[in-house]
Amino acid sequence: MADFKVLVQRIRVTPHHNADALEIACIGDYRSIVQKGVFRTDDLVAYIPEQALLPEWLIEEMGLTGRLAGAQKNRVKAIKLRKIFSQGLCYPCRDHWNEGDDVAQELGIIKWEPPVPAHMSGELFSAGPHRTIKYDIENIKKHKHTFVIGEPVVITEKIHGTWCQIGILSDDMAHKTHGQLCVASKGIAARGLAFKPDAGKNKNNLYLRVAKRLDLVQRFRDVYYNGGPIQKSWFIIGEVFGAGVQDLAYGASTGTDESLGFRVFDIYTGQPGLGKFVNDSILDDMCYELDLERVPIIYRGLYGREIVDACTSGHETVSGNEMHIREGVVIRPQIERRTDELGRVQLKSVSEKYLLRKKGTEFN
């Protein structure tokens, strides 16, 4: 799972061919533009990633006053300096730091969380960890050796919308007050919470509007249980998108229920923590049987990093007319597997053009 950290890491320094006073510090596959002569290859630095919020004293010490992003000019964002893409900042290592230390707390750095719009918030209930999915995806730049060359993978488009869990609880796991439908956003689900499905205050809630339109409890009952009891829990994980969701609307001009898109990118079966995500082919079959649309598949075949890089850029394919730049892609094995370091194997690759766009939104 992706946790926000400011890790002490070793760098490799290379020349910046478009600027005499700058160099490139490489941290794995990430690049950070630094002043020439400040760092050398094999130095340890605190790598401050994108979406970090820096305290004022640290901004002043690093000479970045007025140069960062956000209303308070305190947020780290991807930039281009003299035609070279730069992600994150390098801070000199202190004497008592060791490689691998997380120094976010010592430096007073926290992760930026965008304010949640009213139509994405609502009245909640405690669903508990057995009714919600905790979910996140690490960047392939942090785990570049996770996939094996030639491994069968599927690469799907990463839609710029908002993560949505639509839980269909088994009859015996149904909540005594709120029933079998368990709907949550990513941040809310991670806390074991869900939106109250029948609360008056939630009538305009984006996630519930989509879930009720799809009526998945009845679909599962009809398709897999012949209209009878639902015998185990299922969690449909997908992306809600359209007008009013994020800055990329994918062709939708209004925020009506009918114009809101929903694309499935995962299905989990069983109790969270004890169940499993379904394999690629089963996900295809279930989307077909339930009449649900899956996120666009850009590539299905053998893994190669050059293939990932080629798929990452370009234009979106959701609306069919290439209206927007592509946010990026998600790569996963066709057959689910896990590693000790990562847990479930799936990684994202994000487009540089997407990260550099102006006035973008990043609601969870």
Brief digest:
This protein is an alpha+beta fold and 364 residues long. The chain is built from 8 helices and 24 strands. It folds into 2 domains: 105 residues, no CATH class; 239 residues, DNA ligase/mRNA capping enzyme (D-amino Acid Aminotransferase, Chain A, domain 1, 2-Layer Sandwich), CATH 3.30.470.30.
Helix-strand layout with pairing:
Layout: E1 7-10, E2 12-15, E3 22-27, E4 30-35, E5 44-48, E6 52-53, H1 56-61, E7 79-81, E8 84-86, E9 89-92, H2 104-107, E10 110-111, E11 124-126, E12 138-139, E13 152-157, E14 162-168, E15 181-184, H3 186-190, E16 193-195, H4 206-214, H5 216-224, E17 234-241, E18 261-269, E19 276-277, H6 280-290, E20 297-302, H7 305-312, E21 328-333, E22 338-339, E23 343-344, E24 347-350, H8 352-356
Parallel strand pairs: 12-24
Antiparallel strand pairs: 1-5, 2-3, 3-4, 5-9, 6-10, 7-8, 11-16, 13-20, 13-21, 14-15, 14-17, 17-18, 18-19, 21-24, 22-23
Please provide the count of β strands: 24
Q: Going across the biggest sheet, name each strand in turn.
A: 12-24-21-13-20
Let me know the largest β-sheet.
5 strands, mixed
Helical segment count: 8
CATH topology of the largest domain: D-amino Acid Aminotransferase, Chain A, domain 1
Residue share in β-strands:
25-35%
CATH top level of the largest domain is Alpha Beta
How much is the average pLDDT? 90
How many individual domains?
A: 2
Shape: globular
- Percentage of residues in helical conformation: 10-25%
Low-confidence parts lasting 5 or more residues at pLDDT below 50?
A: none
For CATH, the homologous superfamily of the largest domain is named as: DNA ligase/mRNA capping enzyme
Radius of gyration: 22 Å
**What structural class should be given to the helix and strand makeup?**
alpha+beta
Gap between N and C termini: 16 Å
Please tell me the CATH architecture of the largest domain by its name.
2-Layer Sandwich
